[in-house]
């Protein structure tokens, strides 16, 4: 029986066969079990001898079964590991990722420059009162300059803010006479027909500095610093006299054309200059309405359009690209 069992076990090549043989020899109705069960009919002398032989045979069969069993387990583990092997040298699959929108990116860059110059960031509501949007900025009712900015009115006294300048007044009222150095980014609204250079909604960044002895030269130096960080060391600015009811004197600021470096091209209409923002010394009446004494302090303010800064920075010819969310346009800024 032993020889037969061992012979059969040698030929086993899968776990199922192994189990069948275990049952055949060692199971409840197995051959060996049968023999050991028949020992009751043996004499007292024969019993221990046959019992001993039976146990030896059982042990031998079990040993071989265990060996086989372990071999099968090892082979199975081996196979699984081989199937799970990963080739770490294969190039990965590129996953489509989002990117910061170019307008947010440019706004962040502008903010970074001014934060680097010691400015804090202030915010105000997009739905604004006539008082903050116009009145406190030295634009009384029926002032002709109100037409400069066609407004979306909600009620007679409430409108969508047409610029970020109302945040100037809100900040002054909050700061209660203390020196101010803030920028105010945000959305603004004007009743324009949308085209390549106009949008009913766009983004501005306002700047306001108030304190003792703030001068026009401080404004000019600040703007030069900003422009050179934004467009490169070679960038220059020029100030042209202008008019805003809330600044006196007022100026419009041009930067040397980023396309041709000031030599003249289509982008700057051969002038070498591109207009980027409006600015000036805070009007004494505006300081007063903000709770500051024009005899004690002075200030400068500026306001720029984020879209315009971005158009110039990237040489984009149509502002509508910023709003239509075409992946082909937006994805170009993911790597910049
Ligand atoms: N608020 C002005 C505009 O929207 C810009 C400006 C801001 C001008 C601050 C002067 C000072 O056109």
Strand order of the largest sheet: 1-4-5-9-8-7-6
Radius of gyration: 43 Å
Q: Name the helix and strand elements from N-terminus to C-terminus, one letter apiece.
A: HHHHHEEHEHEEHEEEHEHH
How far is the first residue's CA from the last residue's CA? 81 Å
> What structural class do you assign from the helix and strand content?
alpha+beta
Q: How much helical structure, as a percent, in the residues?
A: 25-40%
Main beta-sheet strand count, sense and barrel state: 7 strands, mixed
Strand portion: 15-25%
Q: What's the total helix number?
A: 11
Arithmetic mean pLDDT: 91
Based on Cα principal axes, name the global outline.
rod-shaped
The small molecules bound here are: phenylalanine
* Tally of DSSP β-strands: 9
Low-confidence stretches: none
Q: Please, could you describe this protein's structure?
A:
The protein is built from 11 helices and 9 strands. It has helices at residues 2-11, 15-26, 31-37, 46-84, 102-116, 130-133, 166-175, 216-231, 284-289, 306-314, 327-330, and strands spanning 120-121, 127-129, 158-160, 180-189, 201-211, 237-244, 247-256, 273-282, 298-305. A hairpin with a 2-residue loop joins strand 6 (237-244) and strand 7 (247-256). The two termini are 81 Å apart. The relative contact order is 0.11. The model has no long low-confidence stretch (mean pLDDT 91). It binds phenylalanine (PHE). The site of phenylalanine has 11 residues, from strand 8 and strand 9. Mg(2+) binds at residue 248. Residues 104-312 form the Aminoacyl-transfer RNA synthetases class-II family profile domain. It is an enzyme of class 6 (ligase). Tetramer of two alpha and two beta subunits.
